[in-house]
Amino acid sequence: MRRIRSARSSLSAPTILALALAVGACGGDKKTAGEGKDPVDAKAQAADTKPDPERVKLVEEAKAFVSEVDANLRKLWVAASKAEWEKSTNITDETEAKAAEANAAVMAYETEAISKSAKFRPVLDALDPSTRRQIELLQRTATLPAPPDAEKREELARIAAKLEGMYGKGKYCKKQGGKEVCRDLGELSRVLAESRDETELLDAWVGWRTISPPMRPLYQRLVELGNEGAKAIGYRDMGEIWRSRYDMSPEEFEREVERLWKQVEPLYRALHCHVRAKLHEVYGDKVPLDGPIPAHLLGNMWAQDWSNIYPMVEPNPGAARLDITRALEAKGYDPIKMVKAAEGFFVSLGLDPLPKTFWERSMFEKPADREVVCHASAWDVNLSDDLRIKMCIKVDHEDFVTIHHELGHNYYYHYYYRLPVLFQAGAHDGFHEAIGDAIALSITPEYLEKIGLIEGVKVDEAGILNKQMQDALQKIAFLPFGKLVDGWRWRVFAGDIGPDAYNAGWWKLRTEVQGVAAPVPRTEEHFDPGAKYHIPANVPYMRYFLAHILQFQFHKALCEAAGHQGPLHTCSIYGSKEAGAKLRAMLELGASRPWPDALEKLTGTRKMDAAPLVEYFAPLAAWLEEQNQGRTCGW
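Structure (tokenized):
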């Protein structure tokens, strides 16, 4: 169970009191007692400089409160995390019920603790930085705040568990050859990735979305109860809580997201223009040359990652290119060997090996005897270096990269697990997602050759352009989707998109922001947002947008620490202890300091910036500009 944090630092209480006493004892020129002062005024001034006993008492109570909260949250979060692990690795009615019960206990305590913390607001300026930050983080910790009413709180926990279970067990079933055939998300996703038959693609795309309409009334109720809980702790709605976690006001954060998007939007639009033109060559008028791209033709169930259509848009088909999937197969890699390779990257930076328990407790492959949530995730179940990953690993390029990403989470957990539990999080949630992705940017030919996965592959300029296109289809294509998922939810939470327009609001954003459209008419009988895991699981999504920006900012800083010379896209930090030391210094902070402090620790700057991303893709951007000459771009 990971929580997102945000707060400000302040002067410590001892500093405040010392300053007050110093003013009373040493103010102005030395004078004899009473000289130049009215005796009554002197007594009043002396009284003013004495610490307020009630204020001092409240400061001490705040310290005790934070200590108590740390112990209680640790106990409850661990219990909930254990229950969630059991549910995710064995989906049954029983494990769903136990997870709901554990999460209801967390909700009850968080609601109570947040309410109690309000009494310390008058003395926040007098608290030491650690105590103050923990109180402020506590007030923003609930991703799904529960109503004060116990019955509603239990209902919310049951709904949350039910929704995630519905997603994990989801299958598309239809009659084939006289019998019913059912396919899960993995099987349907393979169709989207591999098939070029438009009819088959459409069937898989529509089929997966048959799982989500039953979620709709449950999701509507989840929003109602979550918003009620948000209002009970002083927020307008859940969206305001989510946007309050970034060491700035919700309004400032929205502006920051727009600023970052504007930095990268031109590159996305150039990629969209080229991809649309190439798809038109294959599918004809199914893909208009001046409108949005049909979602089922982009190689991914949610059209968030276009890397599976790479062969259709490859810049230089004859150039040497890395086939990492084939290399993994040829070298006899299995899931464990893939994870070992990713661990080896972190260890090469001077970071610690993963604990023995990681190998004993993780789920690396899909069990044959039970339903599980295959969606990849990283865990510290006991908040005590109990590191694990949960994946149904395939031996391919995509999962090789994903493993590096998940271990990035694990190494973050490892280096901050000794902190108070409220500090056991990324500086902000985008940091957590960006670490492993920044490492994955170092999966270069040079690195792959060093670990013996490939031999003698030299990538020329044409090959570099191919690799940039592969990366862009994943990372650049994702950016608008990463932005709009929470854009939709923020509007839902605020009531700007009502329950009678969930689907219409979803596709309006998909079309406006992403330039992607539903391939067939969708109505309010459908609930297409629910076909994306993070919606029924209520996982905030803006972290992924931010991570796709930050990973390049981190990569540039780590490459500079490693002494890299040359274009940014050619850098691998593998084996650099200097880069590892800078990374570790940031990881160890967790959420104990505002995120600009953590960013500065690694990059030397205090502002998120997409310029390194644009720099990384400079060769592709120049090539796309040439290719798009004479085309109508936009939608």
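DSSP finds 25 helices and six strands in the chain. Residues 53-88 form the longest helix (36 residues).
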